[in-house]
What does this fold into?
Amino acid sequence: MGESEVFVIGAGIVGLLTALELTDRGVDVVVFEAATVASGASGGLGERGIRANGRHPLELPLMARAYARWADLGYRRTGQLHVTEREADMPALAEQARRQRQAGIASELLDVAGVHELEPEISAAVVGAVWCPQDGTADHTTTCHRVAGELRRRGVSIREHQPVRRMPAARRVIVTANGGAAALVGVETFEVFPQALVVDGPAVARHLIGHHHRRVILKTLAGGQTMLTGGWLGHAGTVIDDHVRANFEEAVALYPGLGDAEITAAAADRAEAVSADLLPIIDHDDRVAVATGWSGHGFALAPAVAELLAAWVTTGRWSPLLEPFRASRLRG
Ligand SMILES: Cc1cc2nc3c(=O)[nH]c(=O)nc-3n(C[C@H](O)[C@H](O)[C@H](O)COP(=O)(O)OP(=O)(O)OC[C@H]3O[C@@H](n4cnc5c(N)ncnc54)[C@H](O)[C@@H]3O)c2cc1C
It folds into this structure.
């Protein structure tokens, strides 16, 4: 391994986009990947939500920045509704919309009529929502392979099947190994296996749908099937039948039209690193930066994080937008 280049460890969305941003800035970069491109959380069943709606306030500035990049990378801008079935939640949703607008993210509070106009098939129990028109979905696996293809065209070496076991002696190292970062740089994360289902039935949801109190997220895939997630977990890479059933029941409660739909795919085969406060860990020392601990919602943030990590390499400046995500916040 040479002394002059920048090494990126991990060829998921964060590592690939960071490498792309570095080559945009004329930096020589080599990517090391333990398995293959998009073999981790950035690949697999269905699509990923590209959303600001409902995010932690500290992540909103990153998401506001990421949208423009997503427009270039390619995503389906469906808009997202973050819905509730409880009148008592409406003040919290109004505050959410206000906070998101303040961060530069178009957001609007919808009343019952507004929701049902946008989502005619949704349960009559839904009383309101926050509407984020810039949100949408992306085919995550295809996005990663497209970025990897562009890197290779630019002459970047993506060294697959090359797990990095100790920190290499490059000028700078960017560790984007998700769960693998813990062993390399000592950050405290644990791994989970989020569950994703695909059901065949009527295409009931016209937008990306999140829920304030039910554990369900719905998206209608490009092919017309419905994908369900919502924080349900598998175990060691396989689904748990009770969680599959519960996730589906939550979806049917929200969209009764899915009642006769058939579950055609169920997966929990993609490990994701989770931090103690469910926020990412993005940090650096003189030579090494790390970005991990995405806690199930890192895909949409990746373009902004990649841009800021690349800027750190070329300017030595650490963006104030990354400051809240230092590992030290989790220590005593
Ligand atoms: C089912 C599911 C649904 C999700 N839904 C959403 C969503 O709707 N919206 C959203 O924003 N996010 C979502 N996420 C989270 C999102 O997919 C992840 O946060 C994101 O893909 C993480 O990207 P990454 O590049 O950091 O990690 P990964 O894609 O996991 O890439 C890390 C890579 O590093 C490699 N690696 C590990 N250790 C080493 C090593 N020692 N040496 C070399 N390589 C190594 C791995 O093989 C892997 O390929 C979801 C995740 C899952 C699993």
The chain has two domains: 6-44+139-188+276-331, 48-138+194-269. The radius of gyration is 20 Å. Residues 9-15, 32-35, 39-42, 48-49, 163-164, 176-178, 180, 184, 194, 196, 229, 270, 272, 294, 296-300 surround flavin-adenine dinucleotide (CB under 6 Å).
